[in-house]
Amino acid sequence: MNGVISILTIVLLVIQFSVNAQEAKDLGWLTGVWVSTQDDVTFTEEWTLINDSTLSGHSTLESNGVVHFSETLSIEMQIGIMVYVAILPDKTAIFPLEQFEPQSISFLDPSNDFPYRITYTRTDAGLEIILEGSPSSEAPIETLHFIKKP
């Protein structure tokens, strides 16, 4: 039984290392200015590759020319783990990497009710961002579809 537990532990460590071995430069598809418009509301995200381990971003929500929400974002390495950092006016939220695939990346913060999980997926039409609430919350899943500005 101890041998099975040891093998399982090694397999889990290898999987975790493989996920964390990714670099920000592998997310080149995320760079640029992305816009999502729904009725009179415009969401904008802008991402810039700073170096192999850091993407810097900014997000705004605007309606009728007035910015109602703004946050500074980054995807970076912290203590060997890729994290998504959102700096808001009243707090900083850090979401560790959950899953990394060539066209999709997700981050999860179990201590945050909403969003609990943030997923970016490259699509044929552009970019899809899914914001999910924690399983214990009644927050709806929000799906935003962005197109890249030329």
What do you see in this structure?
By secondary structure, this protein is mainly β. The protein has a ten-stranded antiparallel barrel. It has one helix at 2-20; strands spanning 32-38, 41-51, 54-63, 66-78, 81-87, 92-101, 104-108, 117-122, 127-132, 142-148.
Strand and helix layout:
Blueprint: H1 2-20, E1 32-38, E2 41-51, E3 54-63, E4 66-78, E5 81-87, E6 92-101, E7 104-108, E8 117-122, E9 127-132, E10 142-148
Antiparallel strand pairs: 1-2, 1-10, 2-3, 3-4, 4-5, 5-6, 6-7, 7-8, 8-9, 9-10
Overall spatial form:
globular
Count the strands? 10
The CATH superfamily bears the name Calycin beta-barrel core domain
Number of domains: 1
**Assembly level:** single chain
Notable features of this structure?
10-stranded antiparallel beta barrel; 10 strands; 13% helix; globular; disordered N terminus
Quick synopsis:
It is built from one helix and ten strands; from the N terminus they run αββββββββββ.
